[in-house]
Amino acid sequence: MRLKKSQKEQVLQWIAEGLESDEINARAAEFEDPFKVSRQQVDFYRKSRSIDLAALRKASEQDALTEGLAVVGERVRRLKMLAELIEQDIFGGFLWTENSKGIGSGEVAEIYDFEEFNASEVSAYRGVLDDIAREVGDRIQKQDVTSKGEQIQFVNVGVDLEKL
Length: 164
Fold this sequence. Notes:
Number of helices: 6
Strand content: 5-15%
Helix content: 40-55%
Distance between the termini: 72 Å
Largest sheet: 2 strands, antiparallel
Oligomer: single chain
Order of helices and strands: HHHHHEEHEE
Strand order of the largest sheet: 1-2
Number of domains: 2
Structural class: alpha+beta
Shape: extended
């Protein structure tokens, strides 16, 4: 089957991703102008365009490393947006939430309304703040337990550390 230019470019991109002919055909069936390729076509494109494919693969990897959530600034920006949303909710009046419980059943049942601290949302907010701090490098992730480059020696005080 003869491919249109857009179809050929898409096939080359899928080959650069490392897809096999059956995977390419599955994606091609969902393409705007559906098509099908044979294994021979895929092999031909792999051999004849190997240099182009290497360049496509390199460009694709570079894009993955320099776009979207791979960029620290983008992750921090989105985390800040999330923190602001949670702040609006918590500080806008939902630090304490209304709740109710029923006690008993039937005619003697009573419903009690009470306020409850919104611990889960506060915990989520603290987690987002911690994530932001980690992204910008304000959190120590690994502590070095050494003294001037030498391992700290523990003195035996008569307690078997293995039993603790």
